Amino acid sequence: MRLDLAREIRLLARDLRGRLTTDAPLAPFTWFRVGGPAEVLFQPADEDDLSYLLSRLPREAPVTVIGLGSNLIIRDGGVKGLVIRLGGKAFGSIDAREDQTIVAGSAAPDAAVARAAAQAGIAGLEFYRGVPGAIGGALRMNAGAHGGETKDVLVSARGVDRSGAVRAFALESLGFSYRHSSAPEDVIFTQAIFRGRRGEPAEIFAQMERITAAREASQPIREKTGGSTFKNPPGAKAWTLIDQAGCRGLLIGDAQVSEMHCNFLINRGAATAADIEALGEEVRRRVYEKSGVMLEWEIKRIGETAPTRRSQ
Q: Do residues 210 and 203 lie in contact, with contact meaning Cβ atoms separated by under 8 Å?
């Protein structure tokens, strides 16, 4: 008989220093505030702790990584296997250096990296003020906004693979394209180095304020939302196609297409993950029916659907 995963991990990795929690609620970690629990949640103490666990974890054990949860739907049935969430000083540090480089942990919020760069007089990273989420997610999907992308400022990144090996990645090895990286799927990013250019802090902060004002005027950033839901198709804007398909304000359960910006889905308070995902799929169906374009999800969806209750 196989041991439960948490007990197996504790037996195989007795020197683990991070926090291990069974049946851990995940909804509080997501901006949508929906979703079921993790079978086992691991919050490593540092990169060495992460490497140690991965080197001892049974190969058949599923591993899922979550960040700040801004671009994520966790399904109502939760996530099987091990869920890893990086945080704390070990993964959230930001170091601005005199050579116009920024060394940031993968759990550092994108907006905090932009702010640290501005304070140090490093220009070029202002666009991160408009990107929800953390650096790990930015590396995984070449996050960008307001004319800038991760590939424009990244020098290199570091991460830990499924075997526990720490690996370094030069910019050119990551294969960045629009909202995509070709980095190995099993790599958990832990750190990145960015390079900007010398600038005046006042001018940099002014640009960041303009980005903030533009977001607040056009996006439902104070709602329970996951950010942009669908990628822009070649030569088109997703929000335009959604609007033309008559989806602005569309409701399923307590999930709604934002009336302010219809490439955003909103949890009005009591939505389930199933409501939100079903709404997204209905939007895709209607857009395809109207324009012949099948929108591609930008929001990541993970986990198991909740069992359907049968009437007695």
A: no
